[in-house]
Design a protein that fits this description.
286 residues, mainly alpha, 2 domains, two-stranded antiparallel sheet, elongated
Length: 286
């Protein structure tokens, strides 16, 4: 069984104050995802170039200059649109099972997605175009582009969480997509007793599978230390506030509150057929 060290984990504290832990994506996995996305965008560009040549029957420097500009208007919308629609994933990221998450634990904003992907143009694609003469430039400019390209490629390797400059500026991480596995014994044990708290559908619609998995981990953790119990109390208070539960949790009933919420949340997701891939997390946009 593979173990994950703390240095390979990214901890994010969302507004609910329940720490989420993700496995950071490796440089190799990100490179593989990027390669898939580059192939998709440049195959699209090549097909468009053939269409232009076939339709207009022209082939000169002006066409290639137009295509160079057009490549930008294919790449950027592709990355931005897919990451917005698929909650931080492009086709390459989906195949590589990685995703982009916000460092503040909130949903990715259009600003973050646009910034990190426009920075990709400045970090990689534009200097490569200059360096290999796709865009006309002097020897000095090519030397500067080579130096800049080295910096941007080395930076993720030296960064604590493998962040490139675009991720640092946008406040994002690229992480391994969590594998959601619910353990039956947790739900079965909690349903054997009468439920103390009741939650309505609007309150249960606040969370998805990943948050439910995180809550299960909190519930399953043994209360051998003061820190473990305090974590459960913080989670109960955070969820109470997040879902707008109208009643005060009686003293000493915080753990029951968590357990009842877990059971009813899981039943709710199953009943709405959202327990598969349709609602991955609380930020999922249907």
């Amino acid at each position: 069984m593979n173990t994950i060290s703390d240095k390979d984990l990214v901890e994010i504290l969302p507004p609910e104050a329940v720490t989420l832990r993700f496995e950071r994506s490796s440089f190799g996995t990100r490179f593989a995802a990027q390669l898939v996305d580059v192939l998709i965008t440049y195959l699209s560009l090549f097909a468009l170039l053939l269409a232009i040549i076939f339709i207009f029957r022209i082939l000169n420097e002006g066409v290639f200059t137009f295509v160079i500009l057009l490549s930008f208007f294919i790449r950027s919308p592709y990355y931005i649109f897919t990451e917005l629609v698929w909650n931080g994933q492009t086709i390459g990221k989906k195949l590589s099972k990685i995703c982009v998450v916000s460092a503040d634990g909130k949903t990715l904003t259009p600003y973050q997605v646009v910034v990190r992907n426009l920075m990709k143009e400045a970090e990689v694609f534009f200097p490569i175009s200059m360096l290999f003469g796709v865009i006309s430039s002097s020897g000095t400019v090519k030397l500067i582009c080579f130096f800049w390209l080295c910096v941007t490629l080395i930076y993720p390797l030296r960064s604590k969480y493998n962040q490139r400059l675009g991720d640092v500026i946008a406040g994002t991480f690229v992480v391994e997509k969590p594998k959601i596995v619910f353990l039956e014994d947790v739900a079965e044990r909690r349903t054997k007793r009468a439920q103390f708290f009741d939650f309505d559908p609007e309150q249960l619609d606040s969370y998805g599978r990943f948050e439910l998995q995180t809550l299960e981990d909190i519930i399953r953790a043994p209360e051998k230390t003061k820190e473990a119990r305090e974590r459960k109390l913080r989670a109960a208070k955070a969820i109470h506030k997040k879902i707008g539960y109208p009643h005060t949790i009686p003293l000493g009933k915080e753990i029951l509150f968590l357990e009842d919420f877990y059971v009813q949340q899981r039943q709710y997701l199953e009943s709405k057929n959202l327990f598969g891939d349709l609602r991955e997390n609380k930020h999922y946009k249907e």
